[in-house]
Design a protein that fits this description.
Elements (H helix, E strand, L loop, with lengths): L2 H5 E5 L14 H16 L4 E7 L6 E13 L5 H7 L11 E12 L8 H12 L11 E7 L2 H9 L3 E2 L4 H8 L9 E7 L1 H6 L2
Parallel strand pairs: 4-5
Antiparallel strand pairs: 1-2, 2-3, 3-4, 5-7, 6-7
């Protein structure tokens, strides 16, 4: 039984009033869903969706923003490239692989500890498989906050870091200095799910 699937409805965000009062307890995420996501949509950079309670549609339970993306493996260290391409036949090797980016994901403070974040990620994964996938999408990407609890959350949902170390990721992103990264790029390969659904 899933609270998100059983008790909530998915909507595409169109108006600011639809997410009034939504608070996930993270200043950056709250600001994004209150203001910035509308500019993203207007500039065709990302689309935001949200779940509301079926019993009270004015209560937002969860919100997420999706954007087109890709993994450019030709720029990755050889070991990481091999890991990402491990399940792709050699004949089909490309420089870039299509992906969708979960640009933001937030769960209301009022609905914590109900596996809502995990259920939202599961929905997104299956949304990009046939028959729903209209363009081709091999990977789900996320720029996860570089905090142990956040990285652990995504790992528990099948995601892996694209880079094995922060040093590699800094080099890839051309970031200098000793400060830790704010985020870590992580990916999920959709092919195992696709095979299970064939």
């Amino acid at each position: 039984m899933s609270f998100l699937y059983d008790e909530c409805s998915l909507c595409e965000l169109k108006e600011r009033t639809e997410v009034e009062g939504f608070c996930c307890g993270d200043k950056d995420l709250d600001e994004f869903f209150t203001n910035d996501c509308f500019a993203y949509a207007k500039q065709l950079l990302g689309k935001t969706y949200f779940y509301t309670l079926k019993a009270d549609p004015s209560t937002v339970v969860c919100a997420f923003t999706l954007a087109n993306a890709g993994i450019r493996v030709s720029d990755l260290p050889n070991a990481r490239r091999k890991k990402i391409e491990a399940n792709i036949p050699h004949v089909k090797s490309l420089k870039d692989y299509p992906a969708v980016l979960v640009a933001r994901l937030g769960v209301s403070e009022m609905f914590r500890s109900r596996h809502i974040g995990s259920d939202a990620l599961e929905y997104i994964k299956y949304w990009f498989l046939d028959p729903y996938n209209k363009t081709g999408c091999r990977y789900i990407l996320v720029d996860a906050y570089n905090a142990a609890s956040t990285i652990s959350f995504y790992e528990s949902n099948g995601f892996s870091t694209v880079f094995s170390t922060e040093k590699q990721e800094k080099e890839y992103r051309h970031i200098e200095g000793d400060m830790p990264l704010n985020t870590r790029l992580m990916y999920f390969d959709l092919m195992p799910l696709a095979k299970d659904n064939m």
